[in-house]
Amino acid sequence: MSKLLVILIYPFTWILVLLAVAFLVKNKKYKHSSFIAALALLVIFSNPFLFNRVAQKWDTPPYNRADTTHYSCAVILGGFSSSDRAGGGYFNFSADRFLQGVKLLLTKKASHILITGGNGNLVPGGFREALWVKKELKEFNFPDSVVLIESNSRNTLENAKFSKKLLEQTHLPPPYLLVTSAYHMPRSLMLFKKMGVDVVPYACNYIARGKRVMISDFIPDAGVISSWNIYIKEMVGYAVNSFTK
Q1: Which residues pair with 110 in a beta bridge?
Q2: pTM of the predicted model, to two decimals?
């Protein structure tokens, strides 16, 4: 239900609804107002400058590289790979989560990594992200003993719940690094802490540009609208999850 309802909060959905009203209603006042409102939303949500300012405020800051702490495990949240038509998988735009996990193992910043992710699709098939990722990791010659997988979770709440259970079973001492996209970290961090898992944020996969303002920041960009979808979903999810136990 949540995966269906989230469509209703996307800016482009409201733009389409307002345009539909503008074309379908006969009342000139409503027609004009709907068209102006749709145009206003289009201008606002296609503005790179506004998006970057909001994203920078929301994103979790980068991990302090000067920290010399060694961690027993880095928890890598799924969502960085997707299933293909053949039932296999491929890395998507969030693949930086995977790269950072590999880096943490290679640099011995973490002695283990836990890949948590099943299939969060509205109509799940046989693809299980963590199982597919484990096969990919074998090509890096990592021994199975340093790779933990949790392949049943369908969302971030279950990521936290099932990861906690697996970490308790393996007796790896906390705290753990929590690796996920910067835009996803605030909600993930809240849920893991609610579950009583002691984690340190290791944000990656930043979407927003740097603080330097450029002329292109004021040129409408259709791609920015889709980026807003990601952040609005996270903000609403954070608000909803803040009331969950």
Answers
A1: 71
A2: 0.93
